[in-house]
């Protein structure tokens, strides 16, 4: 029994050594060829239908951490099993390690943009795992039981040596893993980003009118560090602007490739645009508003000269992720930008450095490709972008929504005048009216804060004479087309949640 447990730990240590060395090897072959990241990436791209139907449109930061922790736990259990097996059936244990290496290698080799060397980290890891496993198996006292040869160690001595070697392997694995990670992040584009000097905008942003903000409501401009982040990337793509290119091709008469220097020479505009995630629940916070600096994509598309049948513009990221938006929308004159700046800085790496798309009025998953490197003109009938085969709509204009930011759900207030306030958005259509309902009372028109453009959210407020008791507040918005938000509740999938945000509070 004790020997089995020791052998199990030997298996875990062998797996740790394998992953540590694989991280080091991935320094040469690319961060996405490291087995954990490669396998995680495959899992992300093949989320089973039940999970998808729960409405996890897109992986947020927490989903990724959960995925990595889950993978490590599974791996620990698996390698413990392989370690125990090593004591009884060496050949089977080796097969277990080979399988583990194969899974990593196949995952790495099939990732978008993977080269032939991407299998190396998994292969190196598996080889090291076999060596470590063999050594620790001997040390664990398995050898003499298995083959009956050799003189058994004294129990104490054997245990001491096993623990010492286990410690050495664990330390070496951790050192290799940490060194690999650290060197990878040193390679990161942080330095390149810091040395970018953004061009001035030919058309600077409108000055924010006084009174765009109501006290107690989310800031009108979302600071970069608070801006929601959603993408499928397990390791944030590190794109060197000097090596960056954007290719516009497909069904065009004049394919174009531009470099970073070319891009920075193009006319730049600065615009406030609110972007939202289709996964945002009613009342949720997967939405943000920033000042984007970018060049209008319409001009670039006009230069490429799309064929009339090319009804879809597919944007492709360096990591293979794609989204597709109607060509007509990107050319209708709205401020659809190939953006390089966010709130006065180069795009943060997590938000797409060096370049991404921002399209007012469309959800991010159909329009806002980060780390963009390719634009392909095609037809909706010919190509499904990333989320479409996963059950999300190919066309996804942002739905009119409103949210109560104050008072908070479950709060307690004194009777008397209370400010009810929040945000509303119908991006690119604009907000015409916001109304609030207290309990089952009449809908009351709220006061709208100053508007910057139809492309951004708008704050609103209403003063309410609160009487003692428990109350429920509801909000609804009407867009400038005159369409009022539906009270009908729908989940985020397939094209955005609907329903009215409500907040319950106690007055007394
Ligand atoms: N390369 C890439 N771009 C992407 C995504 C992605 O998974 N990969 N997700 C999209 C989604 S679903 C949204 S909502 C926005 C979010 O942009 P943000 O993370 O800058 O807020 O990015 C879009 N661009
Ligand atoms: Mo999203």
Automatic annotation (TrEMBL):
Annotated InterPro entries: Ig_E-set, OxRdtase_Mopterin-bd_dom, OxRdtase_Mopterin-bd_sf
Indicate yes or no for the key word Transmembrane helix: yes
Judging by the UniProt lineage, the source's domain of life is Bacteria
The alphabetical list of record keywords is: Membrane, Signal, Transmembrane, Transmembrane helix
Q: Which PANTHER family does this chain map to?
A: SULFITE OXIDASE, MITOCHONDRIAL, SULFITE REDUCTASE
Where are the stretches annotated Disordered? 483-508
Pfam family, any one: Big_7
Family annotation (Gene3D superfamilies)? 2.60.40.650, Oxidoreductase, molybdopterin-binding domain (3.90.420.10)
- Which residue ranges traverse the bilayer? 54-78, 90-109, 115-133, 166-183
What species was this sequence derived from?
Actinoplanes subglobosus
Q: What is this protein called?
A: Molybdopterin-dependent oxidoreductase
Q: Where is the Oxidoreductase molybdopterin-binding domain?
A: 235-387
Query: Signal peptide position in this chain?
Result: 1-25
């Amino acid at each position: 029994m004790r020997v089995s447990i020791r052998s199990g730990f030997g298996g875990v240590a062998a797996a740790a050594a394998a992953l540590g060395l694989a991280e080091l090897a991935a320094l040469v072959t690319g961060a996405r060829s490291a087995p954990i990241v490669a396998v995680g990436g495959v899992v992300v791209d093949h989320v089973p239908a039940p999970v998808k139907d729960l409405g996890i449109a897109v992986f947020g930061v927490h989903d990724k951490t959960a995925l990595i922790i889950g993978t490590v736990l599974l791996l620990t259990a698996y390698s413990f099993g392989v370690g125990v097996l090593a004591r009884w059936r060496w050949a089977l244990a080796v097969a277990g390690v080979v399988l583990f290496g194969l899974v990593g290698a196949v995952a790495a080799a099939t990732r978008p943009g993977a080269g032939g060397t991407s299998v190396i980290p998994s292969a190196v890891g598996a080889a090291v795992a076999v060596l470590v496993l063999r050594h620790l198996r001997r040390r664990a006292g398995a050898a003499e039981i298995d083959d009956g040869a050799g003189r058994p160690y004294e129990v104490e001595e054997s245990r001491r040596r096993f623990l010492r070697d286990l410690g050495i392997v664990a330390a070496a694995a951790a050192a290799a893993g940490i060194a690999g990670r650290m060197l990878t992040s040193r390679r990161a584009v942080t330095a390149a980003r810091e040395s970018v000097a953004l061009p001035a905008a030919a058309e600077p942003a409108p000055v924010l009118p006084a009174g765009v903000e109501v006290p107690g409501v989310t800031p009108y401009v979302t600071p970069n560090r608070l801006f929601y982040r959603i993408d499928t990337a397990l390791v944030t793509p590190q794109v060197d602007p000097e090596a960056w290119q954007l290719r516009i091709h497909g069904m065009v008469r004049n394919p174009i490739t531009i470099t970073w220097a070319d891009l920075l020479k193009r006319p730049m505009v600065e615009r406030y645009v609110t972007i939202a995630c289709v996964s945002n629940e009613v009342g949720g916070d997967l939405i943000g508003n920033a000042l984007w600096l970018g060049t209008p994509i319409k001009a670039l598309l006009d230069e490429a000269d799309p064929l009339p049948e090319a009804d879809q513009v597919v944007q492709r990221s360096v990591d293979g992720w794609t989204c597709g938006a109607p060509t007509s929308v990107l050319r209708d004159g709205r401020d659809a930008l190939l953006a390089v700046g966010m709130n006065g800085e180069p795009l943060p790496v997590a938000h797409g450095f060096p370049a991404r798309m921002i399209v007012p009025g469309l959800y991010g998953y159909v329009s806002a490709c980060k780390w963009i490197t390719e634009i392909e003109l095609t037809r909706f009938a010919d190509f499904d972008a990333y989320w479409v085969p996963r059950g999300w709509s190919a066309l996804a204009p942002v739905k009119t929504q409103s949210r109560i930011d104050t008072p908070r759900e479950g709060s307690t207030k004194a009777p008397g005048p209370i400010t009810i306030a929040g945000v509303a958005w119908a991006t690119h259509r604009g907000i015409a009216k916001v109304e609030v309902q207290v309990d089952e009372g009449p809908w009351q028109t709220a006061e709208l804060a100053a508007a910057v453009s139809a492309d951004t959210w708008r704050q609103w407020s209403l003063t309410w004479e609160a009487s003692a008791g428990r109350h429920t507040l509801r909000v609804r918005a009407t867009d400038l087309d005159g369409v009022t938000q539906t009270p009908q509740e729908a989940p985020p999938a397939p094209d955005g949640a609907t329903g009215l945000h409500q907040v319950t509070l106690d007055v007394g």
